[in-house]
Design goal:
The complex is a heterodimer of chains A (406) and B (407). Chain A has 406 residues and is of the alpha/beta class. Chain A has a domain at 2-209: Rossmann fold (3-Layer(aba) Sandwich), CATH 3.40.50. Chain A has 17 helices and 13 strands. Chain A has helices at 2-16, 27-36, 54-58, 82-91, 93-100, 116-130, 148-164, 173-177, 186-209, 218-225, 244-254, 262-266, 282-295, 328-338, 341-348, 351-362, 397-400; strands spanning 21-26, 46-51, 64-67, 105-111, 134-141, 167-172, 212-214, 232-240, 269-276, 300-307, 314-322, 387-388, 391-392. In chain A, strand 4, helix 6 and strand 5 form a beta-alpha-beta unit. In chain B, helix 4 (188-196) packs across helix 11 and helix 6 (236-247) packs across helix 7 (251-261). In chain B, a hairpin with a 4-residue loop joins strand 12 and strand 13. By secondary structure, chain B is α+β, with helices and mostly antiparallel strands. Helix content of chain B is 37%, strand content 30%. Classes of the chains: A alpha/beta (406), B alpha+beta (407).
Chain lengths: 406, 407
């Protein structure tokens, strides 16, 4: 039913130019991120908060609040157990679905690892999908110090979410840990983590909402992040003034979340969204893109540019890089053993998607190779490396550029 | 009996060779090259000394050879330095003109230059050279000599080249250990541009690239002054090393292959061509594909040029190099390198020729010696300056000389 419903929806949105977006925050972490979003920037979006914890929900800033309650919970929340969260969400599936009705795109904000975020998000994604919306989830993974249990819960939820949503952008908090100095408080740390997530949301938002000079379709984005395992890295940089293109390119290369450009080199799909005032020139786009392309030789690069008069002289660039590091076949079975969600969702997908997915799982297992080749530097092995923008120039050029002889 | 104060020597301790150039300056200041000594360098990697004893021995050889050829004793040298640790940047000094009539005096100029030299460097770094660029008088650009002009605010730009003090000191100490005096330390890039560029070319704007064995230096001129300089610790050695890795041959063999079959422009014909490598008995050891060889070399050379082009682009100089690019250094002998550089830089590229120096030109008109000759030229310019500003002794000589009978 939904499968027939979806294409027209997309088409109308294409005609209107602006799909209606609903931003749904799940759990305490999602709520915190939602609270930090600058609502003015996301004018036109509808905000919804979903939680199992009545007290936390009451403090939420979202105009629409949904409390998932059950007698068992006694108003104390899911108690960090995703099974309970999911059971509850499945129970209230129709409520969730109605919450998603009428929007073309649903953003889910959640922190995985806890009860509500991990349990409800996959079901919510499924519900939103059934309501005819495209679903994009922005989630964080817990810090390593939060313990094994949360880690596994988060991983499981991530897999389920990936199966249910059209795209998942996932930020491992541990990565941010390195960027924060020792003295910063817990609150600050969470704020920074949330901040990075918001940057991702903002980047995608501007892709969808701003009048695009060079359009990126939502489908492109979903195609990019769907089926990619492991994490996405994203970075948001901005600069202004006459040398802004160069500055932006430099900032991208030095961005800590991109490991000084190394992430770009490893990723296999990269989306770049440029937003600037009306004075954005082709030369600037070209300069930024040249740098990015130079970094990611192997990746499929999707680019979008948009103008926003409000930005004045600023040039903002959002980069979302996806890489499939671990072979998904190893992780998938575990996810399925935990839940029936993937199987159920597949049922409701549009035929093209399920075909794609089937093709994905149907391919022959590929013999992976461990990265054990030691890159020789020949006579320069023992000398000080010649580093230039993160590249060791002592390693032969043809090896660094991945050019195969023969 | 013999006064060899007019003997000048330039010494370059390079990665592949150590080279000493001896010149004689006549009374008019014209320079004549009278000797040249060189020896293979074994203790240097990427322009930096890694085995001082070995370098000292090689150095003695080169100096001995030069002394023999020129039939003079070398007492002091101008030492050229390079290495990946060397950086160049532009600094501006400001000085308010305080005199009542607002006329800029020589003192003001000296003060502003002093201000421009006062810069913050990392503790372990020291300044090698500083080159004055243009003066600004009340914001008016391009003033070359502001003395006598009226103004309230005098500024000057300086191009400062600095490097790690200890590494530079290593080279100086080593030279001193061979009982030679070091007159001055010069960045190789400055030296080679002195040897290669005419004043018109500096005025038009030019880029000089010296691709040596272990390092690549480049200096960009425009409006007659140095705008930008830099060092990449990548050179001909890297090509050999790449070939050794890519073709799986020994380093010596790779070096030989580079000299015999190297080119910067891969040809279609070479793709199917193979070379058989033989051992000393003439038995075949291995076959290597010439196409691969050319590819590996071309990629490395292209990368070097691209890195330089990027650096100039970010310095905003690409459009100011109207005289084009000049190449020197041993690696610039690779066939086809000029067209490759033209492709990368999209401007006129010329193999550099040493100009305005007489004597031994046949031996010296080779890209490897540009830096050595440049050091000589630097020395002669320095000494001429000294001559024109009389020292105490020469001053007295000058005053009383008229009364003294000529001997």
């Amino acid at each position: 039913m939904q499968t027939e419903n979806q294409p027209p929806l997309l088409e109308t949105s294409a005609v209107a130019g602006k799909p209606s977006v609903r931003i749904i925050a799940v759990g305490n972490a999602g709520d915190a991120v939602l609270g930090a979003l600058n609502a003015a920037e996301f004018a036109g979006a509808e905000f919804v908060a979903i939680n199992t914890d009545a007290a936390a929900l009451a403090a939420s800033v979202a105009p629409v609040k949904m409390l998932l309650e059950n007698k068992l919970f006694r108003g104390l929340g899911s108690g960090g157990d995703p099974e309970r969260g999911r059971a509850l969400a499945e129970e209230q599936f129709s409520t969730l679905k109605s919450a998603c009705e009428g929007s073309n795109v649903v953003f889910i904000l959640a922190g995985l690892g806890g009860g509500a975020g991990s349990g409800i998000s996959p079901i919510l994604a499924k519900a939103a999908h059934e309501a005819g919306a495209l679903v994009l989830a922005f989630v964080t993974l817990p810090f390593e110090c939060e313990g094994n249990r949360r880690e596994t819960q988060a991983q499981t939820a991530l897999e389920q979410l990936k199966a249910a949503a059209d795209g998942v952008i996932c930020l491992p908090s541990q990565k941010i840990f390195k960027l924060i100095d020792e003295n910063s408080t817990l609150v600050e740390t969470f704020r920074v983590t949330g901040g990075f997530l918001i940057e991702g949301v903002r980047g995608v938002w501007s892709l969808l909402k701003r009048p695009g000079l060079i359009q990126v379709h939502f489908g492109d984005l979903c195609g990019l992040i769907r089926d990619r395992h492991a994490e996405n890295a994203f970075a948001f940089v901005e600069a202004s003034g006459p040398g802004r293109a160069r500055e932006v390119a430099e900032k991208i290369l030095n961005h800590p979340l991109l490991d000084e450009g190394r992430v770009l080199a490893e990723s296999d799909a990269v989306l770049v969204s440029l937003t600037a005032g009306k004075d954005l020139t082709m030369a600037e786009i070209n300069r930024v893109m040249e740098q990015v392309k130079h970094q990611c030789v192997h990746a499929q690069v999707i680019m979008g540019a948009a103008a926003d008069a409000g930005l004045m002289e600023k040039l903002c660039v959002t980069i979302i890089a996806a890489k499939s590091s671990a072979p998904p076949s190893q992780v998938m079975p575990r996810a399925e053993s935990h839940s029936l969600a993937p199987a159920v969702t597949q049922h409701h997908r549009e035929p093209a998607l399920s075909r794609q997915r089937k093709r994905g799982t149907g391919t022959k297992p590929v013999q992976g190779q461990l990265p054990l080749t030691i890159i020789s530097k020949g006579r320069f092995d023992k000398s000080e490396p010649t580093l230039h923008r993160g590249e060791d120039l002592d390693v032969p050029t043809f090896i660094r550029r991945g050019i195969a002889l023969n | 009996m013999f006064d060899d104060s007019n003997i000048i020597a330039g010494l370059e301790i390079g990665t592949s060779k150590i080279c000493v150039v001896v010149g004689e300056q006549n009374a008019d200041g014209a320079l004549n090259i009278i000797g040249l000594g060189q020896s293979r360098s074994n203790g240097v990697r990427k322009g930096e000394i890694i085995n001082p004893e070995q370098v000292e021995e090689d150095l003695r050889h080169a100096v001995f050879e030069a002394e023999q050829m020129a039939d003079v004793e070398i007492r002091s040298v101008y030492l050229g330095v390079s290495g990946g640790h060397i950086r160049g940047f532009n600094n501006r000094g400001v000085h308010p003109v305080v005199s009542a009539d607002r006329e800029i005096s020589q003192d003001d100029v000296e003060d502003v230059v002093k201000n421009a030299k006062a810069i913050n460097l990392p503790a372990e770094n020291t300044i090698i050279n500083h080159v004055r660029q243009h003066f600004f008088v009340d914001g008016q650009d391009g003033v070359t000599n502001p003395v006598g002009m009226l103004g309230a605010r005098l500024e000057v730009d300086m191009h400062v080249i600095h490097g790690n003090a200890n590494r530079l000191q290593n080279a100086v100490r080593l030279v001193r250990a061979t009982s030679l005096e070091v007159e001055d330390v010069v960045f190789n890039g400055i030296a080679m541009s002195l040897a290669l560029l005419t004043n018109e070319q500096k005025e038009l704007g030019a880029l000089v690239i010296d691709i040596g064995g272990g390092t690549t230096e480049y200096v960009a001129y425009s409006d007659g002054i140095i705008r930008h300089s830099g060092v990449l610790a990548v050179g001909g050695d890297h090509i050999s090393s790449d070939l050794a890795i890519g073709l799986k041959v020994s380093l010596t063999r790779a070096h030989k292959l580079k000299l015999e079959h190297g080119t910067a422009l891969p040809t279609e014909a070479a793709k199917s061509q193979t070379l058989s490598l033989t051992n000393e008995l003439g038995l075949e050891l291995k076959r290597v594909n010439v196409g691969h060889l050319q590819r590996i070399m071309a990629l490395r050379l292209e990368e070097i040029f691209q890195l330089i082009a990027q650096d100039l682009e970010s310095a905003g100089l690409t459009d100011y190099l109207r005289a084009g690019v000049f190449l020197c250094g041993g690696t610039s002998r690779v066939p086809g390198i000029v067209s490759m550089a033209e492709n990368v830089f999209q401007m006129n590229v010329t193999p550099g020729r040493t100009t305005a120096i007489s004597g031994l030109t046949a031996a010296l008109d080779q890209p490897e010696f540009a830096t050595g000759i440049g050091l000589l030229k630097y020395g002669s310019l320095r000494q001429r300056k000294h001559l024109s500003r009389p020292t105490l002794v020469s001053g007295i000589k000058g005053v009383f000389g008229k009364f003294l009978p000529r001997s």
